[in-house]
Amino acid sequence: MNVTNPARCSEVVGQVPLCSEADVEQVIEAAHAAFKTWSRTTAEDRASRLSEAARSLRSALPELTTLFVRENGKPLREAERDIQRSIELMEIIAADLPEWSRPALFDKHQPVWARKRPRGVTAVISPWNSPVLLSFKRLVPAIATGNTVVVKPASYCPLSMMECARIITPHFPAGVLNVVTGHGSVVGETLAKDERVRAIAFTGSTETGRRILELAAGSVKKVFMELGGNDPALVLADAVLDEQAVNRMTNSILRASGQVCIAIKRIYVHESRIQELVEKLDRSFDRIVVGDGLMPETTMGPLNNKSQFDFVTGLIEQCRRKGLTVTAGGQKLAPETWDQGLFVLPSIVLGAGDQDDIVRCEQFGPLVPILPFQEEHEAIARANDSEYGLRASVWTARTERALELADRLEAGAVFHNNHGIFQDLHIEFPGIKQSGLSRESRWGALDHYADIYGFAG
Ligand code: NAD
What we know:
This protein is α/β, with parallel strands linked by helices. It is built from 14 helices and 21 strands. It has helices spanning 21-38, 43-59, 61-72, 76-101, 131-144, 159-168, 184-193, 206-217, 243-254, 274-286, 306-321, 357-360, 376-384, 399-408, and strands at 2-5, 8-15, 104-106, 112-118, 121-125, 148-152, 177-179, 197-203, 222-226, 231-235, 264-270, 289-290, 325-326, 331-332, 347-350, 367-373, 388-389, 391-395, 413-416, 432-433, 450-456. The strands form six sheets. The protein has a seven-stranded mixed sheet, with helices on both faces. Helix 6 links the parallel strand 6 (148-152) and strand 7 (177-179). Helix 7 runs parallel beside helix 8 (206-217) and helix 9 (243-254) packs across helix 10 (274-286). It is globular.
């Protein structure tokens, strides 16, 4: 299968095998066999291997970043950050592992120890928008806790994950970390069905997540689901909309060209502030330079693949046909080669109704609808009127008011005057409703990949 560069669609960046069901079964067997010895290694041994693997990956950071930009499209700075965070995750988990693995004693009436053991082969299925980081967030804790892993990276964007695996696998015994490529309907479904796979960590769309849940039910696998989102931002009448706030909002809308599960995808703004917000966001969008992610001037790259490009441009067309206002901001870095890539200018949509597709669906592109409200309780009800519940944000000068509204917003995490990621890689609050199933805690995902069993004395 060819993997092409979204900034120049005729350029083939690399090729990967289209694995068959039989290929995948062979890989599962290798992981299953390796589990017998890997599961009996000590936490200290696994931690030291992870630290060494992190060092190897760090030394390849520049080449990995370039490859990632060429297959994914995001600007160099964003791509480098994804890989940096993957490396930091390995270091953090390696440092935490010895303490995490110590048994805990509950002894109110009798001594009971909570002990931890790995579960078995874990499948990690990841999407194309952050294929390295979103694979590492699952595979690192799974390997660290003594499981063996089969990763299925997204078909549009598998090369950088494969290259990372090529660099780190020599640090582990054969069969501990495996990668299989190919179509989700073949590779992903085989992993979700196979009885030897004891856990499945999926990040991707809600629709695919539902299918995997159905298949995983056959052998009652442990499932970890991080799914789609349609995050609302509520801008209250007293919001501080200074330059920093508008920059943070712009970044939350347009990072990775809006192809982020936790991007702001709808803005509800108090009617007294709509004109000001539109003007300021418009100016901020105008400073965005759209082009090939490899060029240092680029601040927003192309969309990743043709199917996403057709979906996003189709939504823009639909908005225009309905008579909505769609601004087109930003600057084209290289107008002469614009048509060779999957580029879309950043846009604001005005005049949309709550039932329009641009409000109800996950656009996953560089455009955002801005919707006025009169009363805060009405804004909360409209924000919650969605199958999704990933993240939300409240923009107001009053922290206590942000907290009151956060209690009523149906989301896995609510941000105040920001809409972003947690800087601390230990912390994760996945989505609720149809945005996800799992809860992670202080130990990142470590608890999720182990079976905790009791030993009573
Ligand atoms: P997708 O669901 O189409 O694909 C995700 C992965 O599943 C890919 O590797 C794909 O090949 C595989 N797959 C496809 N069909 C399958 C099947 N029938 N069985 C098993 N595996 C299958 O998602 P995508 O288009 O790659 O990514 C975009 C979606 O991911 C968006 O909805 C976005 O919100 C979501 N996402 C969520 C998070 C989160 O943390 N909640 C993070 C990133 C992306």
